[in-house]
Write a structure and sequence with these properties.
With 202 residues, this protein is α/β, with parallel strands linked by helices. The chain contains six helices and seven strands, in the order ααβαβαββαβαββ. The longest helix is centred in the middle third of the chain and has 13 residues.
């Protein structure tokens, strides 16, 4: 269990990359997001806590205008190197996600959420819901893979446990749910532990 008071510093996450302690990293694009991207109209997408950017690269290849945000320096450098090699244009930002407003208010058609919500201090979860609302355009969608559903928040983290009811309560005002399921494309180690819930900003 990690010390909670360290996660609000970029150095905590940079240290994880330097040590290779990045258990959230799939090493490739997320199968669930890959499938969803085929059903979406290309637009502007923000990936919060983007990590090494496999989904950022994938969405950019498909014509989306991608903004990839991470607290740590290493993954942002990795994304830039790959994007340059592939001649892709990705807006990369190294900063605390909560510092994206007000500059990026009402800027995005989509937000991708996976392992960012469970990585932040749980006391900031309401702030996260407000951030997502501010960043999205009206009608924009927060496409979330919410996890780990099988962990109690009292066990500490990151990752900190997530409960479906908590997520739905946080996004109960000024949002509507457009999708709610356990996706068949979830990787084996996450089946039943993550749920796809998509919220649309009203």
């Amino acid at each position: 269990m990690e010390k909670n008071n360290d996660i609000n510093k970029s150095s905590f996450w940079e240290d994880r990359y330097e040590k290779g302690e990045i258990g959230w990293d799939l090493g490739s694009e997320t199968p669930v997001f890959s499938a969803i991207s085929e059903t979406l109209k290309p637009g502007s997408v923000c990936i919060l806590g983007c990590g090494n950017g496999y989904d950022a690269i994938s969405f950019s290849k498909k014509g989306f205008h991608v903004t990839a945000v991470d607290f740590a320096e290493t993954p942002i450098k990795n994304i830039n190197n790959i994007a340059n090699n592939l001649s892709l244009t990705i807006n990369t930002i190294q900063k605390d996600i909560f510092d994206l407003t007000p500059k990026y208010n009402n800027s995005f058609d989509y937000i991708l959420e996976q392992t960012c919500f469970c990585a932040i201090d749980p006391k900031n979860r309401e702030q996260y819901s407000n951030l997502a609302y501010d960043l999205l355009k009206v009608g924009g969608r927060l496409i979330g893979l919410w996890m780990p559903l099988d962990k109690d928040i009292k066990e500490g983290g990151p990752p900190f446990g997530v409960k479906e009811d908590e997520v739905k309560k946080l996004f109960s005002k000024q949002w509507k749910i457009t999708e709610d399921c356990f996706p068949v494309q979830s990787i084996q180690t996450r089946k039943g532990r993550e749920k796809l819930i998509v919220f649309e900003k009203l």
